[in-house]
Amino acid sequence: MKKHNFSAGPAILPASVIQEAAQGILDFNGSGLSILEVSHRGAAFMAVMDEAIELVKELLDLPADYEVMFLSGGASTQFFMAPMNLIDESDTACYVDTGTWASKAIKEAKAFGKIEVLASSKADNYTHIPQGFDVPSYAKYLHLTSNNTIYGTQYHWWPDTQVPIVCDMSSDIFSRPVDISRFGLIYAGAQKNMGAAGVTLVVVKKDLLGTVHRHLPAMLDYRLHIENGSMYNTPPVYAVYIAMLTMRWIKANGGMRQMEQLNQRKAQLLYDEIDANPCFIGTTRKEDRSLMNVTFLAAKPEWEQPFLDACKAAGCVDLKGHRSVGGFRASIYNAMPLEGVQALVDVMREFAKREQ
Amino acid sequence: MKKHNFSAGPAILPASVIQEAAQGILDFNGSGLSILEVSHRGAAFMAVMDEAIELVKELLDLPADYEVMFLSGGASTQFFMAPMNLIDESDTACYVDTGTWASKAIKEAKAFGKIEVLASSKADNYTHIPQGFDVPSYAKYLHLTSNNTIYGTQYHWWPDTQVPIVCDMSSDIFSRPVDISRFGLIYAGAQKNMGAAGVTLVVVKKDLLGTVHRHLPAMLDYRLHIENGSMYNTPPVYAVYIAMLTMRWIKANGGMRQMEQLNQRKAQLLYDEIDANPCFIGTTRKEDRSLMNVTFLAAKPEWEQPFLDACKAAGCVDLKGHRSVGGFRASIYNAMPLEGVQALVDVMREFAKREQ
User: Fold this and answer.
1) CA dist B120 → B106, B133, B323 (Å)
2) For site-directed labelling of A92, which of A80, A152, A253, B281 has its Cα 20 to 30 A away?
3) Do A227 and A261 lie in a common domain?
């Protein structure tokens, strides 16, 4: 039976990427060697890294004053590495608290400067994106979490400010066009929209770097990674390869505009069903609904397990909501085809027929 | 033509591991999903992480007061993370400088405490392991690099000291039995003897942790990773899987004693040829020769390229020495079979017949 993978991350990859990924393990580019065992300084892998960096530039339409890095350690490492590289102890950075990951970013940043939390939706269990906050002009940056995987909310607007935005885009990178000039730094773990776990994309506007006075260990200094083309030390070779293959797939499938259109169609299909189906209730404010992670509850708690069972029977897997929210979460990243969402909607309709 | 992969790292993997690694990409444990796209919190991957940790404990014969972590960022991250977790600014740690990686470790450590370099073989271009140094009892640890990939030297003894040894074993982990009670902390990037690039093994004696007073970002705090079973954030799933498969292979092939015997036979075969063959010259002091990275020069510089060409024609690849040493380097890690080394020795003999 075909599986429809709704995992929040590591998450579904395009079927063609999985085939190429397996082929590269058995024989990388006809070299007679596996990509797992070739030198990262060899021409074959250098070409992969170069193409990965070029694809980021192309997909994000990056101006020349931005740099691209592929690093290790996940977004959780960026939570402290970004402030460490961008602010001194006496500087102020502003944050908006929209969920678990945003609040972890706030906690980690506090060791490196003055952190002001401009707004939070915590009191409402993060069911919406706060609005109406002002960004003080003395802030060195404003940190946002563009999509909140656990709570199913997403920014569909950006604050009107001259302060550079630092943005955790782990769960919606490459899912829609973004005006990059609004951002000073973007980071994203690969394992949702751009590949497998093990590599993190960082994009930074060059002139933000080199202003801090603290000691930076080599591996925590963005400038060193930029100078070395993300090859200061052995990079996570295979994870970079999968990211490159995934970005190639995004490009071949129409780039970010096409991704956005498909993502809107998929999300609309699912949210329409949630709103129409008496067995289910959406958990987030409608205007802040995520196109990536669709969170909803069973109208009666006793329906929760039977619905998950019905999903499983139809091949729809990993739909259990995060423990802090409960209910269900359907993660429908770029690689989830419309048929996958339709399969889930079909289960919801069947379930309603049976239970009503 | 069969390739014999002498790459220094990322390096040769057992053929059976490569087959399983590809299978896991296409269908992980019969789940109908790729290991690249399953949740790291799911039972299937949790079992992989648990088995990987158990295999480390078994292969290293770890006492109960040691902990195992799988982290990101390579040994280069451990260069600063180890001192950050083990010494305060007023503490002293001692280092021995045996090459490029040792000296990078020294440089990174200096930001976190008083660093004493007890001995260095730099003046001799790192062609031997320094001896006859005393380790002061006030040192919180002694840092060694057990095998020096670039220079082809390896410790075949350990300093007689009560001070805990912190050891970078990136290029000889699991290649021979080690009396773990001599060590306080061991770290190793996976991409030489235990898998593919993208994950780093850290083994630590628990009582060394929790003594420092500085702020540690979450991702840089060993204790947090231990508490969370290396799952504080999304781990590098696939790299952990390959490490687990490689350790399974080591165990199935007789464990560390068997690895050591095979590694000794392979190294002996190659060093004997270097010593007997008039076309080649070994670069390191004989008693410090590495069983992992065999470095040698052509007796006449004009032989260098023709010999590399002859190797390539015989399927022996990635034999060029590191740019800081020149000549040749044959990396013959656990996964290199005796036939691979024999193939290289055959090329050396043919070359001598032709050129002499």
Assistant:
1) 11, 10, 20
2) A152
3) no
